[in-house]
Design brief:
120 residues; two-stranded antiparallel sheet
């Protein structure tokens, strides 16, 4: 009889972690210490400080990026340059790692793609 009484708490201890792992939104010690941050990539503050520009994967064009603007006060997101405008006609989307605008932010001056040199 005594063994049966000890068996119930042991089974409960084994069952609780299995149930907790089914919901990924729960905060656990493991999720705290294994959290990996994601890079924002290149971010540029606008000259007037009202917002910043960033590269984000395009939801409409595979393997392409949009240049988006975030308002610093409200967090509103707008697409400044769509991926379709960064893709040559009939071509492959440009792989962009950095970008620069004119001082009035009306035109893109430079688009850069960093390439790693392959060992010979």
């Amino acid at each position: 009889m005594r063994h049966r009484i000890l068996l119930i708490p042991i089974l409960l201890l084994l069952l609780v972690p299995a149930l907790a792992q089914q919901d990924p939104s729960l905060l656990t010690l493991d999720s705290i210490f294994t959290y990996r941050t994601r890079s924002l990539g290149p971010v540029q503050w606008q000259s007037d400080g009202s917002g910043y520009l960033a590269l984000e994967p395009s939801p409409t064009k595979k393997d392409a990026v949009d240049i988006v603007r975030y308002d610093a006060l409200t967090g509103d997101r707008t697409i400044k340059v769509a991926a379709e405008k960064l893709t040559p006609t009939g071509g492959v989307p440009l792989g962009i790692d950095e970008f620069y605008f004119t001082s009035d932010e009306q035109k893109v001056l430079h688009l850069y793609k960093h390439r790693a040199r392959l060992a010979e």
